[in-house]
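BUG: 3D viewer hangs when loading the predicted structure for this chain

Environment: internal workstation, default settings.
Expected: structure renders.
Actual: progress bar stalls at 90%.

Input used:
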Amino acid sequence: MKIFKTSNGAIYEKPCFDSQYTDETVFGTEATVLEECGRWMKVRTFYGYEGYVTSDSVGDGEVGEYVVCTHHTDVLPAPEYQYAPILSISKGARVVVCEAEDHGRFFKVELPDGELGYVRKSSLKKYCDFGEGEFGDRVVKTAKEYLGAIYRWGGKSFSGIDCSGLAFMSYYLNGEVIWRDADTDKMTMLREMTLDKIKAGDLIFFPGHVAISLGGLDFIHATAGGNGRVSIERLGDRLKTEGITGVYTLKTE
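Structure tokens produced before the viewer hung:
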């Protein structure tokens, strides 16, 4: 199994650096190698997205049971704070924890290709631990943790995130995988509903854009317009300039 081993690397449309940036790799998640072309690999992510990454951005390993739950955290070479980090990884990164060993405030972790490191316990939780409350409320809570993050085409971290990246990460961190683009034709895990029945966590689609409903007329989204950040808006304000193309909720069957 191949695992992304760099923190928030780029997935390109073509095998060259001046190609369009289409998605962001997240440390510790799975990728299938489809083709090798010199210093490049064509990969398919676990959620079905395809593109090109540099060969040194993936390694051998497994998907960890733990996930980073803070904006980012450091992987240190020893279980002490005064060392320079090996790397810094962001929310959503998957980590393999060596649970048999106790290192106080730190977990010992195994990185792709077998390198070892240490991560603060307070930065990790088991991926299956999605917390209390209804799914939609948890999605909204997660989305709000990205408030203020700048808009970045293809991004999926607090360092920069786009509209579908925000929707994807907010669902993924609560146990559901949706398509990574604002494309309703590929959202087979969702069903369309009417605006009058919208609830927290449902997705609102505009032309080429997606937002997460807070329930009622408010929504949260990552936008290139306005202040260029993850922000909360009123639906009525957006409808003055453009219409919605659909409202979707997670299928329960």
